[in-house]
Amino acid sequence: GSGSEQKNWPQNKWAELVTRLLQETKATLLLVGGEAEANRLEKLSVNQPAERCVLAKNLPLVELAPQLQKCSGFIGHDSGISHLAAALNLPSLTLWNHSVEEIWKPLGPKVKTLRSPGGINEISVEQVLSEVLTLFPEISPSR
50, 1, 56, 44: which is closest to 19 by C-alpha? Predict the structure, then answer.
């Protein structure tokens, strides 16, 4: 989630990414969201193996930070949680829309932003998956 729906990658693309990550890698996913995303998290996790798809719903930042620190990396939007992941020095992929990257992007040596000239909706699942496998090699395909 983010402070604006316009900053969010489409739900159907998140759903495809979650499914592909669980099918094609050995990743366990921590799905993070606030009050506004509770239903979305539920939809993303339905029919997924519960032991590999953990929900972190509406957690205070002091509780979320230690959970994020256990992660190999972070994938998110232009949001406060992306800044938290960067501050924790997590390898991070931030899916970016039209806000000014030079001013608003999360900072850190392990942060990469991914954008498309056509906007966030034009970023493909394949692009994200390719970046994720490069940034987080420890979840390498389990085939």
Answer: 44
* φ, ψ for residue 125, nearest 5 deg: -60, -40
Q: What is the Cα–Cα distance from 99 to 32, expressed in whole angstroms?
A: 22
What is this structure's pTM? Answer: 0.91
Helix (H) or strand (E) holding 79: none
Measured CA to CA, the distance from residue 55 to residue 127 in angstroms comes to 24
Q: What phi and psi, each to the nearest 5 degrees, are found at residue 88?
A: -85, 0
* Identity of the amino acid at 21: L
* pLDDT tens sequence across 27-68: 999 999 988 787 889 999 999 999 999 999 999 999 999 999
d(CA 103, CA 51) in angstroms, rounded, equals: 38
Dig out the tokens for 102 from the structure. Answer: 């030079």
The residues, ordered by sequence, that sit 6+ positions from 123 with a Cβ below 8 Å of its Cβ are: 9, 13, 95, 114, 115, 116
Concatenated DSSP letters for 36-57? GGHHHHHHHHTTS-GGGEEEEE
